[in-house]
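Notebook, bench 3.
Goal today: get a predicted structure for Photosynthetic reaction center cytochrome c subunit from Sphingobacterium paucimobilis HER1398 so we can plan the truncation constructs. The sequence was checked against the plasmid map this morning, with no discrepancies at the termini. Length recorded as 137 residues. Pasting the sequence as submitted so the record is complete.
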Amino acid sequence: MINRSKLIILSAITSVVLGVSAFTNAPATLQADGPKNLKVLPKNISHEDLGAVMKGFNAALGVKCNHCHAPKTNGEKGLDFASDANHQKDIARSMMKMTKKINAKYFKHEHEGLIQNITCETCHNGNKEPKTIAVKP
């Protein structure tokens, strides 16, 4: 059985992604035989759902696929979606885990249903780097 907080978080991310996907360009073609090297997203995610998540990153951070995905190294054009060569991919994974932890800790609800929690857009607001302010101790 899927952990309830995971389901809520995935639902929130999916709803944000689907909401902004209408305003973004289609992502690069996904691998024909299914996604590879998924470490945070569900391993059985559909191509459509994975594409929607990637479009959500595009909208939330204002980046294109090559921000996190490394180019192919075998002389072909395009991106190697399974590669971990681009360190931005690990940063994205860490940010997804952080968001999941925040939502699980601070947005626990006893009732069922979709709850809008913290998402990439919350901090990034369409920018690659989130705006930060200096806080004096």
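The longest helix spans residues 87-106. The chain has one domain: 4-124.
Flagging this for group meeting.
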